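DATA SHEET
Item: assembly model
Revision: 1
Owner: S.N.
Input lines:
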Amino acid sequence: MSRIAVIGVGSPFADDHIAYDVIQLLQQESLPSVSLQYYDRPGWYLLEYMQDFDTVHLVDAIISDKPIGTLHRYDDIEYFKTQDTLLSSHSFGLAETLLLGKSLNQLPAQLVIHGIEIAMHNSDEEKLKEAYLLLVDRIKQEIL
Amino acid sequence: MSKLQKDLTIPIIARVEGEGALHLKIHEGKISQLELSIYEPPRLFEKFLEGRAPNEVIDAVARICGICPVAYQMSAVQAMEHIFEMPVTPWVHEMRRLFYCGEWMESHALHIHMLAAPDFLRYPSVIAMAKDHPEIVKRGMHLHGLGLMLMTLLGKRSVHPVGACVGGFYAAPKISAVQEVLAQFKKSLPLAQELVLWSASLPMAKVTQEFTSVCLRHPHEYPMNEGRIVSDRGLDIDISEFDNYLKESQVPYSTALQCHLQGKSYLVGPLARLNLNHHLLPPAVHDILKEAKISFPTQNMFHSVIARSVEIYYAMLEAIRIMENYVYTPTPHSPMTPRAGVGFGCTEAPRGLLWHRYEFNDEGLVASSRIVPPTSQNQARIEEDLWHSLMAFGLDHSDDDLRFHSEMVIRNYDPCISCSTHFLQLKIDRT
């Protein structure tokens, strides 16, 4: 039987808390045999948390050039780029962690990254709420 | 030396926390100007703390740094207990040491594997290095994880822990939880021994420099939470005298403050600690150093990576000692009675001496605070090292080579510019 996890990552503060909200909502659903986890900036230790699962859905906030609330979905971490050598121990984020996992052959067989576009300041709470409710539905459909 | 003239600017220092820049001017084959600019915005924490109650301070300062929150909490708690005239119980003394062991392991493991090892082995990043050396990276991640485990045991979580309070800890860990962590540490101890031997085998230049090491020294313990501030040039002062000898100042090209000891740069951090306290390490550490054919003190700055590995091994031994003797207590903290006064705290953060000064008012709230982080203290030393190292390396190398060498020198200090907490001087012209 495939071992499935949905893992939210990010700070519990400001709009970065959105992954925490998604996991909390999923915990209210009936999702037997799905592991629901949340980690506050786990860094490269995320690889350890993922290694017991065949399928992992990762949820994190994203800042790009899209409108607030836009949902992103990535099946391939080739989309993730880091700045050449710009890797301080503090700034070793999700993209670096996943690329490191690839180097170590330590990624789950199926990895889906779900992102929700947020803003650095003054997010639109309503749009964010709509977005994460939609994301909860999408994740449920994918894992059930 | 060629009659070379170059004006080399490295706009962003890669793999250094915050943002930094190095401006290097080379005139007729010699360095005519070298400026390390850090433009991390000021963090304003010293001002945030004003008006706060003692235990709010502990939670707030933990947020200055995501990697060394324990250090900020321990320096703050020491200063407040000094003001409130609170004795530290033997149980709390040991638990604070255990807490600190976790942070040293976590922070050092990150630096060694994410920053230092790729530099020494000539990889652009740990991601590239991991393809050729997966077991080394996995060992680093495992040791890092053990450090997080200790921080969580006492702090309830590893990111911005919340378990510490003035007088001790809010709760004592259950014996079963300690035993579980202890078993993991005992099983993993050989990994730390391997790490020391491996780090000593890394290809590194055999260059020495003149520098002054500064750290805490305790009569009986390898320093973490207590001690006097000492140097290898005769300094031996109480932590309350810090300001009389170690002066912070601003340079026009950088927002980060620099710190000097009687007008000269100095080194804080693991290498300084080992240089001044190696005699306090247990026999097991001396045995592994002998096997690695490394001895301290040393004036080779690149031996910092070995010092970090040695401190991971020491922290594991120390953690095992403390956990083997662990006794549960129903009173994990002493009662606190806030009062007005001035107090000082100084502990050994992973990156070096972390000094706090607090003044409390009659209401038991912070009237003023000052925080001097280790990176600020190492700034002037980094510039001096760059000057020396680049001259030794040779200035007629390509710009890319000079850039890589400069970055390697800077990263060797594990600088954490986000720890620069000071409010900057402000000049306003009004017309």
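QC remark: DSSP finds 13 helices and 13 strands in chain B.
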